[in-house]
Amino acid sequence: MKCYILAFFAFGLFVLFLNLPDEKPCGVTASWRLIHQDPWLVLLEYHREGRRTGARCGGTLVGPRHVITAAHCVRNAFFDRLTVRLGEYDTASKIDCSEGVCSDKVVRINVTEIFAHPDYVDKQNDIAVLKLEKDAPYTDFIRPVCLPTGTLSPRTLFLASGWGQQANGLYSHIKKLIPLPNWSIEDCQAMYKQTKLPDKIICAGGERGMDTCRGDSGGPLVVMKRRSELWGITSAGHVHCGSQGYPGIYTNVTMFLDWIGDVIKI
């Protein structure tokens, strides 16, 4: 865990001291403190017959009314109502405090429309856009991320996050912040030689004990530039999370920018 915290401390300082003119810019955090990191991460809550049945996936706020997640989080789940929980840090406490800072109460907003990619099948095109019932507030704990620009370097270090399973098999109640190195698609496919990987993906991770896992699906894979950008969506990985040499599989958001733009206009 120390390596996660140190890496994020450095990233937080980088974003914190930018002089950004926008009133509500995307991809920036309120400070370097852990409780302020990844304010675009949301938790999906599933409801059925008037009861909450679970919170099994993440998502990423990309604007006041829209969240991007994995298609398998909304196509392979049984629910009759979906809400997003924003501003969460510690799912085990009502008021989250860390390093002398306490967060606002979490915000829950109903999802009114779900747009799974029309060509989604068996992890191919594993992306969906959720439209919210009302605008998400812009606070120190709730902020949108930017969509990706430019190209990736082979040396890119990504940052993933979520509340999924840890190495001990238990789900984390604290928001996990996980630095993951970029892998070439060729090297990634060579490791998963028994499986044909989906198209339009990013591979990242492959280091023992540093990985996304069950419960992190749909969450963000971010690149820290001048502003943080959403490059990937947690989609799949090795059956044993955090196995050495087996990176996680993430939907490549750059391949879907036109579709995302069309959906957000609806």
From TrEMBL:
Keywords from the UniProt entry: Disulfide bond, Glycoprotein, Hydrolase, Protease, Serine protease, Signal
KW Glycoprotein (keyword) present: yes
Give the GO biological process terms. Answer: proteolysis
Top-level lineage group? Eukaryota
Every copy of the Peptidase S1 domain together lies at: 39-265
One GO MF term:
serine-type endopeptidase activity
- From which residue to which does the signal peptide run? 1-17
Q: Which family does it belong to?
A: Belongs to the peptidase S1 family. CLIP subfamily.
Supply the name of the protein: CLIP domain-containing serine protease 2-like
Q: What is the lineage of its organism?
A: Eukaryota, Metazoa, Ecdysozoa, Arthropoda, Hexapoda
